[in-house]
Specification:
globular; binds guanosine-5'-diphosphate
């Protein structure tokens, strides 16, 4: 387990006029409804690699709808993406040397995309690289109009690190919905896992007004339906 690399700098609070206009037209989505009768319209098994880009200005056209996945390195992001899409090759794609610091786009069909953001929190990464990561991420969150929400992955045994808190605040700043997967829940017994879930849920309003959270295990394949429902809900919003 690598050491926590500590807090990163404050996000830019200044918004350009264009960003302002866009933010005004955007409000934080209400919490996701998880009713049994929701119709699952998106087949996540159809997910296919689209492209890898170093910066958002090289991203695919900003049309349709996309949901981004972010998380500290080793949080279980690749495993979660693979499990949700029932595909083994996605994580391999994202972990290809040279692509780990890139933004990876996956096509779901129907102009829907999943986006794998670079992992963060590597203890030994130089400060300049951390700052570059921060600039790239905040730029992506600010300008990407098709972005409907962010899935934030946290190891359920070490939730809400400084990085996680910062990302939630950035999402709240731009009115972007956030949903947390507390990963590797199989590593804890039911009681402690449930306690961690409640503890995180209780603290979330400190960072984001209506982020949601669930337990997830790629190993035991638990929490998949709940995560897919959040994704479907966001992606199918007009
Ligand atoms: P990433 O760096 O965030 O993409 O994380 P990975 O998906 O590569 O996972 C990091 C490590 O955690 C790997 O050794 C995985 O096998 C392990 N891991 C991921 N998900 C789970 C899980 O649900 N349960 C357990 N026990 N281990 C997991």
């Amino acid at each position: 387990m690598e050491a926590d690399a500590g807090p990163i700098g404050e996000p830019p609070r200044e918004k350009t006029p264009i960003v302002h206009q866009w933010l005004e037209s955007r409000s934080i989505k209400s919490p996701v409804k998880l009713c049994e009768n929701d119709i699952m319209t998106i087949d996540f098994r159809q997910t296919a690699f689209l492209t890898s880009v170093p910066k958002v200005d090289r991203a695919p056209p900003d049309e349709g709808a996309e949901v981004a996945f972010a998380g500290r390195s080793n949080a279980g992001k690749s495993s979660a993406l693979n499990t949700i899409t029932e595909q083994r090759s996605l994580a391999r794609t994202s972990k290809t040397p040279g692509r780990t610091q890139q933004i990876n786009f996956f096509d779901l069909g129907g102009n829907h995309r999943l986006v794998d953001l670079p992992g963060f929190g590597y203890a030994r990464v130089p400060q300049a690289m951390k700052e570059q990561w921060q600039r790239n991420l905040t730029e992506y969150l600010h300008i990407r109009q098709s972005l409907r929400g962010l899935i934030l992955l946290m190891d359920c045994r070490h939730p809400l690190t400084d990085y996680d808190q910062q990302i939630l605040i950035w999402c709240a700043d731009v009115g972007l919905a956030a949903h947390i997967l507390l990963t590797k829940s199989d590593k804890l017994k039911r009681g402690p896992a449930g306690n961690n879930l409640l503890a995180v849920r209780r603290r979330l309003p400190e960072f984001h007004p209506d982020a949601s959270v669930q337990l997830f295990s790629a190993l035991k394949k638990t929490g998949i339906d709940e995560a897919r429902r959040v994704l479907s809900d966001w992606l199918s919003e007009r």
